[in-house]
Amino acid sequence: MASDSVFVKVVQAPEDPILGVTVAYNKDTSPNKLNLGVGAYRTEEGKPLVLNVVRRAEQMLVNDLSRVKEYLPIVGLAEFNKLSAKLIFGADSPAIQENRVTTVQCLSGTGSLRVGGEFLARHYHQLTIFIPAPTWGNHIKVFTLAGLNVKTYRYYDPATRGLDFHGLLEDLGAAPAGSIVLLHACAHNPTGVDPTPEQWEQIRQLIRSKAHLPFFDSAYQGFASGSLDADAQSVRMFVADGGECLMAQSYAKNMGLYGERVGALSIVCKTADVASRVESQLKLVIRPMYSNPPIHGASIVATILKDSDMYNEWTIELKAMADRIITMRKQLFDALSARGTPGDWSHIIKQIGMFTFTGLNSEQVAFMTKEYHIYMTSDGRISMAGLSSKTVPHLADAIHAAVTRLG
After folding, report:
1. List 164, 194, 217, 231, catalytic entry
2. According to the model, what pLDDT value does residue 2 have?
3. What is this structure's pTM?
4. 217 flagged as catalytic
5. Domains of the chain, CATH where assigned
6. Which of 136, 164, 171, 397 is catalytic?
7. CB 3.0–4.6 Å: which of 28, 209, 222, 405 could bond 33 by disulfide?
Protein backbone atom coordinates (compact mmCIF):
# COMPACT_ATOMS: atom_id res chain seq x y z
CA MET A 1 0.00 0.00 0.00
CA ALA A 2 1.30 3.45 -0.87
CA SER A 3 2.45 5.41 2.15
CA ASP A 4 0.91 8.79 3.01
CA SER A 5 2.21 11.77 1.08
CA VAL A 6 4.83 13.88 2.82
CA PHE A 7 2.39 16.71 2.13
CA VAL A 8 -0.51 15.04 3.93
CA LYS A 9 -0.77 17.94 6.39
CA VAL A 10 -1.14 20.56 3.64
CA VAL A 11 -4.64 21.99 3.92
CA GLN A 12 -6.81 23.18 1.05
CA ALA A 13 -6.26 26.93 0.63
CA PRO A 14 -9.26 29.19 0.16
CA GLU A 15 -10.05 30.39 -3.35
CA ASP A 16 -8.75 33.90 -4.14
CA PRO A 17 -11.86 36.07 -3.60
CA ILE A 18 -11.47 37.87 -6.94
CA LEU A 19 -10.25 34.99 -9.10
CA GLY A 20 -12.80 32.71 -7.37
CA VAL A 21 -15.61 34.80 -8.85
CA THR A 22 -14.47 33.82 -12.35
CA VAL A 23 -14.23 30.13 -11.36
CA ALA A 24 -17.88 30.22 -10.16
CA TYR A 25 -18.94 32.16 -13.27
CA ASN A 26 -17.32 29.59 -15.59
CA LYS A 27 -19.29 26.76 -13.92
CA ASP A 28 -22.63 28.56 -14.40
CA THR A 29 -24.57 27.32 -17.44
CA SER A 30 -27.12 30.17 -17.58
CA PRO A 31 -27.18 32.08 -20.90
CA ASN A 32 -27.78 35.30 -18.91
CA LYS A 33 -24.71 34.98 -16.72
CA LEU A 34 -22.59 38.10 -16.31
CA ASN A 35 -19.08 38.37 -14.83
CA LEU A 36 -18.46 41.76 -13.23
CA GLY A 37 -15.70 40.52 -10.93
CA VAL A 38 -12.71 40.46 -13.24
CA GLY A 39 -10.56 43.58 -13.56
CA ALA A 40 -10.07 43.33 -17.30
CA TYR A 41 -11.50 45.42 -20.10
CA ARG A 42 -14.19 43.93 -22.32
CA THR A 43 -15.65 45.20 -25.59
CA GLU A 44 -19.34 46.03 -26.08
CA GLU A 45 -19.65 42.37 -27.22
CA GLY A 46 -18.13 41.18 -23.94
CA LYS A 47 -14.89 40.03 -25.58
CA PRO A 48 -11.28 40.67 -24.49
CA LEU A 49 -9.62 43.42 -26.54
CA VAL A 50 -6.17 43.49 -28.09
CA LEU A 51 -5.41 47.07 -29.11
CA ASN A 52 -4.70 47.60 -32.83
CA VAL A 53 -1.52 49.48 -31.95
CA VAL A 54 -0.35 46.50 -29.87
CA ARG A 55 -0.92 44.14 -32.81
CA ARG A 56 1.04 46.54 -35.05
CA ALA A 57 3.92 46.69 -32.57
CA GLU A 58 4.01 42.90 -32.24
CA GLN A 59 4.08 42.47 -36.01
CA MET A 60 7.02 44.88 -36.23
CA LEU A 61 8.87 42.95 -33.53
CA VAL A 62 8.22 39.59 -35.20
CA ASN A 63 9.39 40.92 -38.57
CA ASP A 64 12.62 42.36 -37.12
CA LEU A 65 15.05 39.52 -37.80
CA SER A 66 17.82 41.22 -35.82
CA ARG A 67 15.88 40.58 -32.59
CA VAL A 68 17.12 37.73 -30.41
CA LYS A 69 15.90 36.02 -27.25
CA GLU A 70 18.92 36.73 -25.05
CA TYR A 71 18.48 37.58 -21.37
CA LEU A 72 17.75 41.16 -20.48
CA PRO A 73 19.87 42.81 -17.77
CA ILE A 74 18.58 42.41 -14.18
CA VAL A 75 16.88 45.83 -14.36
CA GLY A 76 15.19 44.99 -17.67
CA LEU A 77 14.94 46.76 -21.02
CA ALA A 78 16.71 50.13 -20.69
CA GLU A 79 14.55 51.85 -23.32
CA PHE A 80 11.36 50.63 -21.65
CA ASN A 81 12.52 51.91 -18.26
CA LYS A 82 13.40 55.34 -19.62
CA LEU A 83 10.11 55.73 -21.50
CA SER A 84 8.04 54.46 -18.53
CA ALA A 85 9.54 57.08 -16.21
CA LYS A 86 8.86 59.76 -18.81
CA LEU A 87 5.23 58.61 -19.21
CA ILE A 88 4.38 58.84 -15.51
CA PHE A 89 6.58 61.76 -14.37
CA GLY A 90 6.30 63.85 -17.56
CA ALA A 91 8.84 64.45 -20.33
CA ASP A 92 10.06 67.65 -18.68
CA SER A 93 10.34 66.23 -15.15
CA PRO A 94 13.33 67.80 -13.31
CA ALA A 95 13.80 64.52 -11.42
CA ILE A 96 14.45 62.71 -14.74
CA GLN A 97 16.64 65.52 -16.13
CA GLU A 98 18.75 65.46 -12.94
CA ASN A 99 19.10 61.64 -13.08
CA ARG A 100 17.42 61.31 -9.69
CA VAL A 101 15.07 58.54 -10.86
CA THR A 102 15.98 54.88 -11.00
CA THR A 103 13.56 52.64 -12.89
CA VAL A 104 13.59 48.85 -13.05
CA GLN A 105 11.34 46.67 -15.19
CA CYS A 106 9.24 44.32 -13.04
CA LEU A 107 6.48 41.74 -13.41
CA SER A 108 3.54 44.12 -13.88
CA GLY A 109 2.16 46.17 -10.99
CA THR A 110 2.20 43.30 -8.52
CA GLY A 111 5.89 42.56 -9.09
CA SER A 112 6.75 46.25 -8.90
CA LEU A 113 5.03 46.54 -5.52
CA ARG A 114 6.76 43.41 -4.25
CA VAL A 115 10.25 44.51 -5.34
CA GLY A 116 9.63 47.98 -3.84
CA GLY A 117 8.35 46.42 -0.62
CA GLU A 118 11.37 44.16 -0.23
CA PHE A 119 13.76 47.02 -0.96
CA LEU A 120 12.09 49.12 1.77
CA ALA A 121 12.11 46.24 4.24
CA ARG A 122 15.91 46.02 3.80
CA HIS A 123 16.87 49.69 3.49
CA TYR A 124 14.25 51.97 5.03
CA HIS A 125 14.19 52.93 8.72
CA GLN A 126 10.40 52.42 9.11
CA LEU A 127 8.88 49.01 8.49
CA THR A 128 5.22 50.07 8.61
CA ILE A 129 3.21 50.82 5.49
CA PHE A 130 -0.19 52.47 5.74
CA ILE A 131 -2.64 51.40 3.04
CA PRO A 132 -6.14 52.78 2.39
CA ALA A 133 -9.19 50.99 3.78
CA PRO A 134 -10.37 49.39 1.59
CA THR A 135 -7.71 48.70 -1.03
CA TRP A 136 -6.89 46.10 -3.68
CA GLY A 137 -6.92 42.74 -1.89
CA ASN A 138 -3.40 41.79 -2.96
CA HIS A 139 -1.73 44.84 -1.36
CA ILE A 140 -1.88 43.39 2.14
CA LYS A 141 -0.34 40.06 1.13
CA VAL A 142 2.34 41.59 -1.12
CA PHE A 143 3.65 43.97 1.55
CA THR A 144 3.36 41.50 4.43
CA LEU A 145 5.38 38.88 2.53
CA ALA A 146 7.89 41.58 1.52
CA GLY A 147 8.61 42.06 5.23
CA LEU A 148 6.59 45.17 6.08
CA ASN A 149 3.94 45.68 8.77
CA VAL A 150 0.64 46.69 7.19
CA LYS A 151 -1.70 49.18 8.83
CA THR A 152 -4.66 51.01 7.32
CA TYR A 153 -5.84 54.60 7.08
CA ARG A 154 -9.45 55.64 6.57
CA TYR A 155 -10.30 56.27 2.94
CA TYR A 156 -13.85 55.35 1.95
CA ASP A 157 -16.99 56.62 3.64
CA PRO A 158 -19.88 54.13 3.12
CA ALA A 159 -22.43 56.78 4.17
CA THR A 160 -21.55 59.15 1.31
CA ARG A 161 -20.02 56.46 -0.95
CA GLY A 162 -17.22 58.99 -1.31
CA LEU A 163 -13.89 59.92 0.29
CA ASP A 164 -13.51 60.05 4.07
CA PHE A 165 -11.12 62.98 3.72
CA HIS A 166 -11.24 64.01 7.38
CA GLY A 167 -10.49 60.43 8.50
CA LEU A 168 -7.66 60.14 5.98
CA LEU A 169 -5.94 63.31 7.19
CA GLU A 170 -6.45 62.34 10.83
CA ASP A 171 -4.97 58.84 10.39
CA LEU A 172 -1.96 59.95 8.32
CA GLY A 173 -1.39 62.81 10.77
CA ALA A 174 -1.36 60.33 13.67
CA ALA A 175 0.93 57.82 11.90
CA PRO A 176 4.53 57.72 13.22
CA ALA A 177 6.81 60.16 11.38
CA GLY A 178 8.51 58.58 8.38
CA SER A 179 5.84 55.91 7.78
CA ILE A 180 5.41 54.52 4.26
CA VAL A 181 2.05 55.53 2.75
CA LEU A 182 0.52 53.65 -0.15
CA LEU A 183 -1.45 55.91 -2.51
CA HIS A 184 -3.47 54.96 -5.59
CA ALA A 185 -2.35 57.38 -8.33
CA CYS A 186 -5.86 57.47 -9.84
CA ALA A 187 -9.01 55.33 -10.16
CA HIS A 188 -8.79 53.90 -6.63
CA ASN A 189 -9.43 50.15 -6.58
CA PRO A 190 -11.97 48.98 -5.41
CA THR A 191 -13.95 52.16 -4.71
CA GLY A 192 -13.43 54.34 -7.81
CA VAL A 193 -13.22 57.29 -5.40
CA ASP A 194 -10.33 59.73 -5.92
CA PRO A 195 -9.31 62.88 -4.03
CA THR A 196 -9.79 66.19 -5.87
CA PRO A 197 -6.62 68.09 -6.94
CA GLU A 198 -7.12 70.39 -3.91
CA GLN A 199 -7.40 67.39 -1.60
CA TRP A 200 -4.29 65.84 -3.17
CA GLU A 201 -2.40 69.05 -2.39
CA GLN A 202 -3.46 68.83 1.27
CA ILE A 203 -2.45 65.16 1.38
CA ARG A 204 0.93 66.06 -0.12
CA GLN A 205 1.53 68.81 2.45
CA LEU A 206 0.62 66.49 5.32
CA ILE A 207 2.78 63.62 4.05
CA ARG A 208 5.79 65.90 3.56
CA SER A 209 5.33 67.65 6.93
CA LYS A 210 5.35 64.23 8.65
CA ALA A 211 8.33 63.05 6.55
CA HIS A 212 6.24 60.07 5.38
CA LEU A 213 7.41 58.18 2.28
CA PRO A 214 4.77 58.01 -0.47
CA PHE A 215 4.53 54.78 -2.48
CA PHE A 216 2.24 55.21 -5.50
CA ASP A 217 0.45 52.37 -7.24
CA SER A 218 -0.44 53.43 -10.80
CA ALA A 219 -2.50 50.71 -12.47
CA TYR A 220 -4.78 52.93 -14.56
CA GLN A 221 -2.88 55.86 -16.08
CA GLY A 222 -4.95 57.12 -19.02
CA PHE A 223 -7.58 54.49 -18.36
CA ALA A 224 -9.41 56.52 -15.72
CA SER A 225 -10.09 59.84 -17.41
CA GLY A 226 -8.87 59.09 -20.93
CA SER A 227 -5.93 61.49 -20.41
CA LEU A 228 -2.46 60.16 -19.57
CA ASP A 229 -1.38 63.53 -18.13
CA ALA A 230 -4.52 64.12 -16.03
CA ASP A 231 -4.22 60.66 -14.46
CA ALA A 232 -0.59 61.34 -13.48
CA GLN A 233 -1.24 64.69 -11.78
CA SER A 234 -1.19 63.35 -8.23
CA VAL A 235 2.21 61.72 -8.77
CA ARG A 236 3.73 64.74 -10.50
CA MET A 237 2.61 66.97 -7.61
CA PHE A 238 4.74 64.89 -5.22
CA VAL A 239 7.74 64.77 -7.57
CA ALA A 240 7.61 68.55 -8.20
CA ASP A 241 8.31 69.32 -4.53
CA GLY A 242 11.75 67.68 -4.76
CA GLY A 243 10.86 64.96 -2.24
CA GLU A 244 11.41 61.24 -2.59
CA CYS A 245 8.78 58.64 -3.53
CA LEU A 246 8.25 55.21 -5.04
CA MET A 247 6.08 54.46 -8.05
CA ALA A 248 4.74 51.08 -9.22
CA GLN A 249 3.47 51.15 -12.81
CA SER A 250 1.45 48.61 -14.76
CA TYR A 251 0.61 48.36 -18.46
CA ALA A 252 -1.97 45.61 -17.93
CA LYS A 253 -4.98 47.90 -18.23
CA ASN A 254 -3.90 50.88 -20.33
CA MET A 255 -2.29 48.76 -23.07
CA GLY A 256 -4.36 45.63 -22.43
CA LEU A 257 -1.15 43.65 -21.78
CA TYR A 258 -2.59 41.68 -18.83
CA GLY A 259 -0.88 38.36 -19.52
CA GLU A 260 2.42 39.89 -20.67
CA ARG A 261 3.08 41.08 -17.08
CA VAL A 262 4.68 44.42 -17.99
CA GLY A 263 5.44 46.88 -15.22
CA ALA A 264 8.06 49.15 -13.75
CA LEU A 265 9.19 50.34 -10.34
CA SER A 266 10.63 53.84 -10.20
CA ILE A 267 12.24 55.38 -7.12
CA VAL A 268 12.67 59.14 -7.12
CA CYS A 269 15.67 60.07 -4.99
CA LYS A 270 17.22 63.32 -3.69
CA THR A 271 20.37 63.05 -5.79
CA ALA A 272 21.75 61.13 -8.77
CA ASP A 273 24.31 59.47 -6.50
CA VAL A 274 21.60 58.11 -4.18
CA ALA A 275 19.59 56.89 -7.20
CA SER A 276 22.61 54.96 -8.46
CA ARG A 277 23.13 53.27 -5.08
CA VAL A 278 19.42 52.48 -4.78
CA GLU A 279 19.49 50.80 -8.20
CA SER A 280 22.45 48.65 -7.16
CA GLN A 281 20.39 47.38 -4.21
CA LEU A 282 17.26 46.83 -6.31
CA LYS A 283 19.34 44.45 -8.43
CA LEU A 284 20.13 42.45 -5.29
CA VAL A 285 16.39 42.12 -4.59
CA ILE A 286 15.52 41.07 -8.15
CA ARG A 287 18.39 38.66 -8.90
CA PRO A 288 17.38 35.89 -6.46
CA MET A 289 13.66 36.48 -7.07
CA TYR A 290 13.33 36.01 -10.86
CA SER A 291 16.80 36.98 -12.14
CA ASN A 292 15.61 39.27 -14.97
CA PRO A 293 12.27 40.17 -16.53
CA PRO A 294 10.65 38.94 -19.77
CA ILE A 295 11.48 40.76 -23.00
CA HIS A 296 8.37 40.59 -25.20
CA GLY A 297 5.83 42.76 -23.35
CA ALA A 298 8.37 45.45 -22.51
CA SER A 299 9.43 45.57 -26.18
CA ILE A 300 5.80 46.15 -27.22
CA VAL A 301 5.51 49.08 -24.79
CA ALA A 302 8.84 50.60 -25.85
CA THR A 303 7.93 50.27 -29.55
CA ILE A 304 4.68 52.20 -28.99
CA LEU A 305 6.04 54.85 -26.62
CA LYS A 306 9.04 55.81 -28.76
CA ASP A 307 7.13 56.27 -32.05
CA SER A 308 4.99 59.43 -32.15
CA ASP A 309 2.45 57.99 -34.61
CA MET A 310 1.99 54.80 -32.60
CA TYR A 311 1.88 56.76 -29.36
CA ASN A 312 -0.92 58.94 -30.77
CA GLU A 313 -2.79 55.86 -32.00
CA TRP A 314 -2.49 54.37 -28.51
CA THR A 315 -3.89 57.51 -26.83
CA ILE A 316 -6.92 57.39 -29.16
CA GLU A 317 -7.59 53.71 -28.41
CA LEU A 318 -7.02 54.34 -24.69
CA LYS A 319 -9.50 57.21 -24.65
CA ALA A 320 -12.06 55.04 -26.46
CA MET A 321 -11.77 52.41 -23.66
CA ALA A 322 -12.07 55.06 -20.94
CA ASP A 323 -15.03 56.68 -22.69
CA ARG A 324 -16.85 53.35 -23.03
CA ILE A 325 -16.55 52.80 -19.28
CA ILE A 326 -17.81 56.34 -18.59
CA THR A 327 -20.78 55.63 -20.92
CA MET A 328 -21.55 52.40 -19.02
CA ARG A 329 -21.66 54.39 -15.76
CA LYS A 330 -24.17 56.81 -17.28
CA GLN A 331 -26.32 54.03 -18.71
CA LEU A 332 -26.43 52.13 -15.41
CA PHE A 333 -27.27 55.29 -13.46
CA ASP A 334 -30.04 56.14 -15.95
CA ALA A 335 -31.43 52.58 -15.82
CA LEU A 336 -31.63 52.65 -11.99
CA SER A 337 -33.24 56.11 -12.08
CA ALA A 338 -35.81 54.88 -14.62
CA ARG A 339 -36.71 51.95 -12.35
CA GLY A 340 -37.03 54.24 -9.34
CA THR A 341 -34.56 52.06 -7.43
CA PRO A 342 -34.52 53.27 -3.79
CA GLY A 343 -31.44 55.24 -2.69
CA ASP A 344 -29.04 57.73 -4.21
CA TRP A 345 -27.04 56.17 -7.06
CA SER A 346 -25.15 59.29 -8.14
CA HIS A 347 -21.88 57.73 -6.87
CA ILE A 348 -21.94 55.50 -9.98
CA ILE A 349 -21.27 58.53 -12.20
CA LYS A 350 -19.05 60.33 -9.68
CA GLN A 351 -16.63 57.43 -9.22
CA ILE A 352 -13.89 56.93 -11.80
CA GLY A 353 -12.04 54.11 -13.52
CA MET A 354 -12.76 50.45 -14.06
CA PHE A 355 -14.57 49.76 -10.80
CA THR A 356 -17.67 50.98 -9.01
CA PHE A 357 -18.24 50.37 -5.33
CA THR A 358 -22.00 49.92 -5.56
CA GLY A 359 -22.77 49.99 -1.84
CA LEU A 360 -24.50 46.60 -2.13
CA ASN A 361 -23.88 44.28 0.82
CA SER A 362 -22.78 40.64 0.68
CA GLU A 363 -26.36 39.36 1.15
CA GLN A 364 -27.55 41.44 -1.82
CA VAL A 365 -24.58 40.26 -3.89
CA ALA A 366 -25.36 36.60 -3.09
CA PHE A 367 -29.02 37.18 -4.05
CA MET A 368 -27.99 38.70 -7.41
CA THR A 369 -25.70 35.75 -8.13
CA LYS A 370 -28.36 33.17 -7.22
CA GLU A 371 -31.36 34.81 -8.88
CA TYR A 372 -29.78 36.74 -11.76
CA HIS A 373 -26.49 34.87 -12.39
CA ILE A 374 -24.48 38.08 -11.89
CA TYR A 375 -21.00 37.56 -10.45
CA MET A 376 -19.04 40.15 -8.49
CA THR A 377 -16.90 40.34 -5.34
CA SER A 378 -18.86 40.10 -2.08
CA ASP A 379 -18.01 43.70 -1.15
CA GLY A 380 -20.26 44.94 -3.96
CA ARG A 381 -17.45 46.01 -6.32
CA ILE A 382 -18.37 45.73 -9.99
CA SER A 383 -16.16 46.07 -13.03
CA MET A 384 -17.80 48.63 -15.32
CA ALA A 385 -15.66 47.27 -18.17
CA GLY A 386 -17.58 43.99 -17.93
CA LEU A 387 -20.85 45.76 -18.77
CA SER A 388 -22.35 46.51 -22.18
CA SER A 389 -25.45 48.36 -23.40
CA LYS A 390 -27.12 44.93 -23.76
CA THR A 391 -26.39 43.81 -20.20
CA VAL A 392 -27.07 47.08 -18.33
CA PRO A 393 -30.86 46.41 -18.08
CA HIS A 394 -30.23 42.93 -16.62
CA LEU A 395 -27.88 44.38 -13.98
CA ALA A 396 -30.29 47.24 -13.19
CA ASP A 397 -33.13 44.73 -12.73
CA ALA A 398 -30.96 42.67 -10.39
CA ILE A 399 -29.85 45.68 -8.30
CA HIS A 400 -33.45 46.93 -8.12
CA ALA A 401 -34.69 43.52 -6.95
CA ALA A 402 -31.87 43.13 -4.40
CA VAL A 403 -32.44 46.60 -2.93
CA THR A 404 -36.24 46.41 -2.81
CA ARG A 405 -36.46 42.82 -1.50
CA LEU A 406 -33.52 42.77 0.90
CA GLY A 407 -33.36 46.49 1.78
Report:
1. 217
2. 59
3. 0.94
4. yes
5. 18-49+323-406 (3.90.1150.10), 71-306 (3.40.640.10)
6. 136
7. 28
